[in-house]
Amino acid sequence: MESTNKKAELLSLTPDELRALLVSLGEPKYRADQIFPQLHRGLSPDAMTNVGKITRQKLAEAADYHLPRIEQKLVSAIDGTVKYLFALADGNCVESVVMRYEHGNTVCISSQVGCRMGCRFCASTIGGRVRDLSAGELLGQVIAAQADMGERIDNIVMMGIGEPLDNFDAVVRFLRLVNNEAGLNIGYRHISLSTCGLVDKIDELAALGLPITLSISLHAPDDETRSAIRPVNNKWGVDALLAACRRYYGKTGRRISFEYTLIAGKNDSVEQAEKLARLLNSRLRSKGDSMPIHVNLIPVNEVAETGFVHSGDAAVRAFAATLEKRGIRATVRRKLGPDINASCGQLRRAAMKAEGEGDGEGRKGTF
Ligand code: SAH
Fold first, then answer.
1. 350 pLDDT exceeds 80?
2. Is 337 left (phi over 0), alpha (psi -120 to 50) or beta?
3. In 3D, which of 150, 173, 170 has the Cα closest to residue 162?
4. Average pLDDT over residues 142-165
């Protein structure tokens, strides 16, 4: 039987969908149980030795299997961090970074080609959003990084290029696929998703009850400061965002971590640290519960186009100490791969510049 649909993308299919596809090709559905795990380990149908030639041919005709191709790979001589510039099937590029910690390997993946959130300090948003990634392309980054490293990936952070909650359906499909026991089987508790604060989507995510860790890119203790660096704050202000965090915690019981990028002279004073501590304590802990709060302080990575300068060590330490004094755990993010420009967006940006500027949607922030 011939499928009239557009070609399926094998890495985006759930086991049930793969079964249905095989049945539509006249194959027994148990074949899906042989094929699904292999796809997720990086084998294309033609490389599968336990599947007959005819089945492989039918699959290749009905569906695509693409892993991101390594366009560029940089390895830090300092800490072993590996940064990939991956080319997708249509030639667009995204970045993924593998960080090597004592507790295992963590991959940071991209969720969109570019980004339309318009954050002023971020390299990924300068050319706007070109397109969303599919679930298979999200998963493909993990599979390709794992295959290239020859080591298991233990943790995933969705903190690369793009806003994951602006690509909600593909991201949720990806979370379920990567968690599947027959696939990579990475536990939800080993996955973090970082968002600039799309409140409606935070609620949608909470409703699904997946016990992933949510990271909120807060970066400011009040609306005025936040709106000046993140256009999204004009739609959902700090109060609305923190109320969504409370609801998320209420539904999932999962600790939320806050990212705070320190920019010299913008958001890094001790007064702003005091204000942040007051804000978090009053909005998140006011009702007698002891919601654990963790703030990750990230000295801003300087991106040529933005003109923002990172805070000095003394300012970073004073900021962290002020939060701790007020009962908020704060850690200063160690800069990984300092010799390979490992913060996301910058490698793709360099490649785009070499080819002429990109032309995505929403360069100034669109919601
Ligand atoms: N869109 C999502 C995830 C991608 S950005 C989000 O906003 O969270 C991942 C993190 O890197 C965010 O906390 C973001 O604010 C931060 N970031 C982006 N550009 C940066 C830069 N130049 N220096 C430091 N942190 C940056």
1. no
2. left
3. 170
4. 97
- Neighbouring C-alpha atoms within 13 Å toward the C-beta of 276: 34
> Which of 216, 261, 309, 341 has the most ligand 1 atoms within 8 A of CB, as the residue to mutate?
261
Boundaries of CATH 3.20.20.70 in the chain? Answer: 69-354
- Per-residue pLDDT tens over the stretch 51-81: 999 999 999 999 999 999 999 999 999 999 9
Backbone phi, then psi, for 20, in 5-degree steps? -60, -40
What value does the mean pLDDT take over residues 154-176? 98
Q: Which CATH number fits domain 9-64: 2.60.40, 3.30.230, 1.10.3470, 1.10.150?
A: 1.10.150
The number of CA neighbours under 13 Å toward the Cβ of 271 is: 4
- Give the ligand 1 atom nearest the CA of 194: 8
CA 172/CA 135 separation, integer angstroms: 8
The residue annotated as part of the active site, out of 119, 196, 245, 344, is 344
Residue pLDDT, tens place only, 238-254:
999 999 999 999 999 99
Pocket test for ligand 1, best of 119, 124, 158, 165 (most atoms within 8 A of CB): 119
**Tokens matching residue 327:** 């009962």
Given a contact cutoff of 8 angstroms between Cβ atoms, the answer to whether 323 and 295 are in contact is yes
Specify the pTM.
Answer: 0.94
* CATH fold group of domain 69-354: TIM Barrel (3.20.20)
Query: For residue 196, which atom of ligand 1 is closest to its CA?
Result: 7
- For residue 2, is pLDDT > 50? no
Burial class of residue 8 (count of CB atoms within 10 Å of its CB; 0-12, 13-18, 19+): buried
Q: Residues of CATH 1.10.150 domain(s) within the chain?
A: 9-64
Tokens coding 325: 């004094």
Q: Are 264 and 258 in contact (CB under 8 A)?
A: no
Residue 44 CA to ligand 1 centre (angstroms): 34
Higher pLDDT: 84 or 363? It is 84
**Any ligand 1 atom below 6 A from CB of 257:** no
Percentage of the chain beyond pLDDT 70 is: 93
- The CB of 195 under 6 Å from ligand 1? The reply is yes
